[in-house]
């Protein structure tokens, strides 16, 4: 079996740490992330531990980030966050392929909000700070921040939407679906992380 040179091993470790960072920010366990792509939590853990060199392959990156409802570009942004950004000027026009690496556009603007109720329980309860991405639409059963036309912010679980309405639910034990007219909303934004104290 061929051995990695130290530089490749270091690059793999940074890429693995970025994958772990993305998973945690999405609020998923290794088992949940692995199940989304048909692998065990142990198999997913090998990628996060840097013990699978396949993590360099674009198809593997697409598969793993897809399980997190993200893209390989998000992995590149996470790589920059965990200290793996190569020494070069930042890109100004998007993402440009350069072999195995990507030069990323500016990271998305994230906002924080402290919860004042338990509507995202058991994932997050009153007093916990969440991070949300303005402009990123949530997937079903994902937490979201709803901005109403009058400027109020509500935190709910996204249930679905059609052309006229958005359907939301509370957290565990709260099964009633709340329907809001799209005309009464400024935006629906996906919750992407829980900031633990």
UniProtKB/TrEMBL annotation:
Top-level division of the source organism's lineage: Bacteria
Residue ranges of domain HTH cro/C1-type in the record: 19-75
CDD domains listed in its UniProt record: HTH_XRE
Pfam family, one: HTH_31
InterPro entries cross-referenced by the UniProt entry: Cro/C1-type_HTH, Lambda_DNA-bd_dom_sf
SUPFAM superfamilies: lambda repressor-like DNA-binding domains (SSF47413)
Name by which UniProt lists this protein: Helix-turn-helix domain-containing protein
Species this protein is from: Brevundimonas balnearis
